[in-house]
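Lecture notes, part 5. Sequence design as translation. It can be helpful to think of inverse folding as translation between two languages: the language of shapes and the language of residues. The source text, in structure tokens, appears below.
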């Protein structure tokens, strides 16, 4: 267990208040989707005047803090082992609630610590309906350890462990979490600030286990240009590759975004991780359409209430 100080990095140029979530002076890569998530989350916490404690496993998010005793985070951070961050967050949330304290406990993890190594403790926390917010920034690889494939890596993507392209489909982590009957699970887009703002605020006003999956491009691992990060996420949403939807209590669905006819090729063509791989775009189009139609049917058959 590692506790990270929340003292500012010496000499850092801070563009927001001293209590902002992600401070200037961090060493994150240009165009990092995770950094965008932290910046947007920090603005919401500041707007709501919400205190927060982050629980972060091994991932780029814990490297972001920098060297002890300074930190690029403006809030207290607990560094957990790779597979146990939901257990750590459960303990933090239990102590907070027993002491009737305010503030959000936020488990912030990448796809490796969510889809794979941390799945057992994630499932346990969801099954117990532990009272904290889980945010997964999904960059679809083990970005902090060299870019290996995870079960979030899409078919055809080349990584250090799938040099000829991944052959297995991406895991449906939102479906898995929602199957536990948790109060709230949703996908979130950093390309749509209003979508991000509303869903984070929805999650924060609820109690129990809440789960947000956020598509977070990694230019280093995706072999894309830093300037393309937001457009990549936008194309993923518009083409159905990353549909935006919500699930309440594991039963009621709401699809948030209509497809606009963007072809998946707009997403694939600008990422060199797919260059020369065996990506069947016709199959990708069909799968994206089928996934979207299925979610629409769920939303029509078991719709979310208007007050949710």
């Amino acid at each position: 267990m590692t506790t990270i100080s929340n003292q500012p990095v010496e000499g850092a140029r801070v563009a927001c208040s001293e209590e902002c979530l992600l401070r200037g002076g961090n060493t994150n890569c240009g165009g990092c989707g995770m950094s965008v998530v932290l910046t947007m989350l920090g603005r919401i916490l500041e707007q709501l005047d919400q205190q927060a404690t982050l629980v972060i496993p091994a991932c780029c998010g814990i490297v972001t803090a920098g060297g002890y005793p300074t930190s690029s985070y403006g809030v207290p951070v607990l560094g957990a082992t790779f597979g146990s961050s939901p257990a750590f967050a459960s303990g933090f949330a239990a102590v907070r609630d027993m002491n009737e304290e305010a503030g959000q406990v936020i488990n912030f993890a990448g796809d490796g610590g969510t889809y794979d190594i941390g799945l057992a403790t994630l499932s346990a926390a969801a099954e117990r309906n532990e009272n904290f917010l889980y945010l997964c920034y999904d960059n679809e690889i083990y970005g902090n350890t060299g870019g290996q494939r995870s079960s979030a890596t899409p078919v055809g993507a080349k990584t250090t462990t799938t040099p000829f392209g991944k052959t297995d489909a991406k895991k449906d982590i939102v479906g898995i979490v929602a199957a536990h009957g948790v109060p709230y699970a949703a996908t979130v887009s950093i390309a749509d600030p209003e979508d991000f703002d509303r869903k984070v605020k929805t999650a924060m006003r609820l109690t129990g286990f809440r789960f947000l999956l956020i598509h977070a491009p990694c230019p280093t691992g995706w072999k894309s240009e830093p300037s393309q990060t937001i457009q990549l996420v936008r194309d993923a949403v518009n083409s159905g590759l990353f549909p935006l939807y919500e699930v309440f209590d594991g039963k009621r669905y709401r699809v948030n975004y209509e497809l606009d006819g963007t072809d998946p090729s707009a997403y694939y063509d600008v990422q060199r991780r797919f260059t020369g791989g065996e990506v069947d775009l016709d199959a990708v189009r069909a799968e994206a359409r089928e996934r979207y139609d299925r979610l629409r049917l769920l939303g029509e058959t078991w719709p979310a209430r208007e007050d949710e």
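The translated text above is only one of many valid answers, since several sequences can fold into similar shapes. The radius of gyration is 19 Å.
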